[in-house]
Amino acid sequence: MKALIDKFVEKGLTIRQAAYPGYDEPGKAGRHEPDIRARDDDEELNIIGEAKTCDDLTSDISKEQFQDFSSREMTKGKSKGKNVPFHVIVPKACEQDLAVVLQELGVSGKANVFTWTLT
């Protein structure tokens, strides 16, 4: 998860909440709490981040999270109604497994879904 926090900070995002020491715990987004909630500098764009291990990718909870987080919409400001950007980071060893799960769930290729790998 720290790797995704670092990527967000590197991109100029502000980490608002994270399931990581030093941050407030994120609240629910749908049925589940994401690992990270971030914002852009304009405080306009909400971003959800989720870190997964290879063993956890195909669990029912992970699948629900992928569906919930990829279908969230902005609720205010000029981005109201647009899909919330959803970022998932996994170890390089299971990059293909993530692609398969996202494809099976119908969220692969959505403009708001971004995948990252740890090298």
Structural write-up:
This protein is an alpha/beta fold and 119 residues long. The protein has one domain (2-118). It contains 3 helices and 5 strands. It has helices spanning 2-10, 60-70, 95-105; strands spanning 14-18, 36-39, 46-51, 86-91, 113-118. The radius of gyration is 13 Å and the shape is globular.
Question: Helical residue percent?
Answer: 25-40%
Radius of gyration: 13 Å
Domain count: the total is 1
Shape: globular
Alpha-carbon distance between the two ends: 14 Å
Low-confidence sequence ranges: none
Number of helices: 3
The portion of residues forming beta strands comes to 15-25%
Helix/strand order, N-terminal first: HEEEHEHE
Structural class: alpha/beta
Beta strand count: 5
**Mean model confidence by pLDDT:** 92
Sheet with most strands:
5 strands, mixed
Strand order of the largest sheet: 1-2-3-4-5
Could you outline the blueprint of secondary structure elements for this entry?
Layout: H1 2-10, E1 14-18, E2 36-39, E3 46-51, H2 60-70, E4 86-91, H3 95-105, E5 113-118
Parallel strand pairs: 3-4, 4-5
Antiparallel strand pairs: 1-2, 2-3
